[in-house]
Specification:
With 445 residues, the protein is α+β, with helices and mostly antiparallel strands. The chain has 2 domains: 12-98 and 332-416, no CATH class; 120-314, no CATH class. Helices cover 40% and strands 17% of the residues. It is built from 16 helices and 11 strands. The chain has helices at 12-24, 26-32, 47-55, 62-75, 85-92, 98-112, 141-147, 186-193, 212-220, 235-243, 303-308, 311-323, 334-364, 377-384, 387-392, 398-410; strands spanning 127-137, 149-151, 157-168, 173-181, 202-205, 224-229, 247-252, 271-279, 285-290, 372-375, 413-416. β2 (149-151) and β3 (157-168) form a beta hairpin. It is globular, with a radius of gyration of 23 Å. GO terms for molecular function: DNA binding; transposase activity.
């Protein structure tokens, strides 16, 4: 009789080892060079070394970053030819930005496969969230043509792109992301990201994503959703609000003005959706639509906290902008912008794996202190800079590098203070040229 193998507890070393192999694998190089002849000669910058260099938080001048990068090889007594800024610029032109997206996909695949440390809800569902945010880009003609202008009432304008990320709110993993023109509909971006989802995943959305078409797409792909609705979204929603019930399973149909061209449904297609009334502390009413129809298995009272989990993706964007400095791009071409964007998502996941493992170790230890402590996120990125090379360099002792990082992280812990809340400043990133760092938050990169 065959018995199913139980998932084992994977540590960070196991997961990053697979990423290390992918970076140095000839298949990766062959697939993601711009031309088949690229990196065929023995140059000072190989494909894998170029990848490592771009992953190492390129937030300072390239000349300084190159000196810091080469010092790692010198300290470790590893042969590596010096290279100039011009040599790197030429090398990066030969690399497709999608290589970092591919590496991130391989990293997350290793994390989620047969791993008992993966956090899920409702008998194995991943709890994901999708949201968009604007990124301010360098002001060049190429980027303006691709991403468009963002203007105010005057003739002054900046160049911005719209980032959209699929984020695992329980495991703090950026599963996938896209960067598009600023006027791209978030639902179009979200549909692209559904390709990263697995059957049965539960995805949480803000009200900007709500539509019959989008909910129908989830049903087709056997994905669950929790979606905030505008109170005037449709007659069905308005009647539900007026009826005063906390939960009701209803039938929805496409709106009268819905464009059905190219759709797999018609005007008479119906969709069963459960609507929930959520009363906020101030007395305001929110309406959530969900595919979790079973009112016995999924009690109404769980949805307020479940929807609140979506807030973690807002915190994630704050990390990308203010701690990882994603908007301080290392180049001006669209290829450089996309390389930096995908590389930052990858680096964020590497940090999250190490910090998550350490935070679990800290919580397992019984302590008589007033607070439970966690890793200081901002400092953890600062400590990871340069050391990430040791983590991913194929000849390095990864376990030693991870333990060194953990020791540094543990020396700078901060307390978790429960029931703290901060008022959301809507639009604070919308019309600025550079990231704003508050006075009590200093740069760590």
């Amino acid at each position: 009789m065959n018995q199913s193998v139980k998932p084992r507890r994977k540590n960070t070393n196991d997961i990053l080892s697979s990423l290390q192999s992918e970076i140095s694998h000839s298949f990766t190089k062959k697939r993601f060079v711009v031309d088949a002849k690229d990196f065929s000669r023995n140059r000072s910058l190989s494909f894998s070394v170029s990848i490592l260099f771009m992953i190492n938080f390129l937030t300072k001048s390239l000349s300084l970053e190159i000196v810091n990068f080469l010092s790692f090889f010198k300290r470790k007594e590893i042969p590596q030819k010096s290279f100039s800024k011009s040599a790197f610029v030429q090398a990066r032109k030969k690399i497709k930005p999608e290589v970092f997206s591919y590496l991130n996909e391989k990293l997350t695949e290793e994390f989620y496969t047969d791993n008992s440390t993966v956090k899920t809800r409702f008998s194995g569902k991943r709890i994901l969230s999708v949201d968009g945010s604007r990124l301010t880009l360098p002001r060049t003609r190429e980027l303006e043509k691709i991403y468009g202008r963002t203007k105010n009432q005057t003739e002054t304008y900046i160049i911005q792109g719209k980032a959209c990320v699929l984020y695992d709110v329980l495991n703090k993993i950026g599963v996938g992301g896209v960067l598009s023109s600023v006027d791209t509909d978030e639902r179009i971006q979200a549909k692209q990201l559904l390709g990263y989802c697995r059957k049965g995943d539960l995805i949480i959305y803000d009200r900007g994503f709500a539509s019959f078409d989008f909910m129908y797409e989830h049903k087709e792909k056997q994905l669950d959703f929790v979606m905030r609705m505008r109170l005037d979204f449709s007659l069905v929603v308005r009647d539900f609000v007026a009826g005063g019930q906390d939960s009701q399973v209803l039938t929805m149909q496409p709106g009268k003005n819905t464009n059905l061209q190219g759709k797999t449904y018609d005007k008479d297609t119906s969709l069963i959706v459960r609507l929930l009334r959520i009363v906020l502390p101030g007395g305001e009413i929110e309406v959530l639509a969900t595919s979790l129809e079973d009112e016995i298995q999924y009690k109404t009272e769980i949805f307020k906290d479940l929807y609140f989990e979506r807030w973690k993706i807002e915190t994630y964007y704050d990390e990308l902008k203010n701690k990882l400095k994603i908007e301080e791009f290392s180049g001006y071409s669209n290829q450089s912008i996309l390389q930096d964007f995908y590389a930052t998502l990858l680096v964020s996941n590497i940090q999250s794996l190490i910090v998550g493992e350490l935070n679990e170790e800290l919580q397992e230890k019984k302590d008589t202190k007033k607070y439970i402590y966690k890793v200081n996120t901002s400092l953890s990125y600062g400590f990871l800079k340069d050391r990430i090379i040791g983590l991913l360099f194929s000849n390095s002792d990864m376990n030693k590098a991870i333990e060194e990082l953990k020791t540094l992280f543990k020396a700078h812990l901060i307390p978790i203070r429960p029931q703290r809340s901060n008022k959301r400043n809507i639009g604070k990133y919308k019309a600025r040229a550079k990231p704003i760092v508050s006075k009590n938050q200093k740069n760590s990169l």
